[in-house]
Design a protein that fits this description.
single chain, 133 residues, mainly beta, 10 strands, 0% helix, globular
Length: 133
């Protein structure tokens, strides 16, 4: 297996079996946020960094029948996008993996890697969610 590098280390870590989303938490308001914040958007108070859950519930989804952003080929099959609710109360906008016919609102989804480039044995990865088997 190649070494992995996060395409955006401010949003997620790529050093384990699954990506780790990096969020913020305001203890005063008991609210969590993704992506990370400088201050709480509710009370403007301090926040601290947290790692968010690696699974959540599919809230909504769609399938987009256009090439993935940045792709030159016009005959691409398209890709899934959705919103996943994490236990911390955060709703993540994300790409979805797997067969769109298998996606169901309310299903448990888990974080997974999507490789966008491989150079010199290093995979540059994004995160996405896929149905939990």
């Amino acid at each position: 297996m190649n070494e992995r590098r996060s395409a955006d280390p401010d949003l997620f870590r790529a050093d384990g079996e699954a990506p780790v989303l990096l969020g913020s938490r305001c203890d005063k308001d008991e609210e969590s946020f993704y992506p990370r914040r400088w201050s709480c958007p509710v009370c403007l108070g301090p926040v601290h960094d947290v790692e968010l859950s690696q699974s959540g519930e599919l809230y909504s989804y769609s399938f987009i029948y256009v090439p993935t952003f940045g792709k030159a080929q016009l005959d691409a099959e398209g890709y899934g996008v959705g919103q996943v609710d994490l236990p911390e109360g955060v709703r993540v906008q994300t790409t979805l993996e797997g067969d769109p016919k298998s996606w169901r609102i309310g299903d448990t989804m888990h974080l997974t890697y999507t490789t966008v480039d491989t150079t010199d044995g290093v995979d540059t990865v994004l995160y996405s969610f896929a149905p939990t088997a």
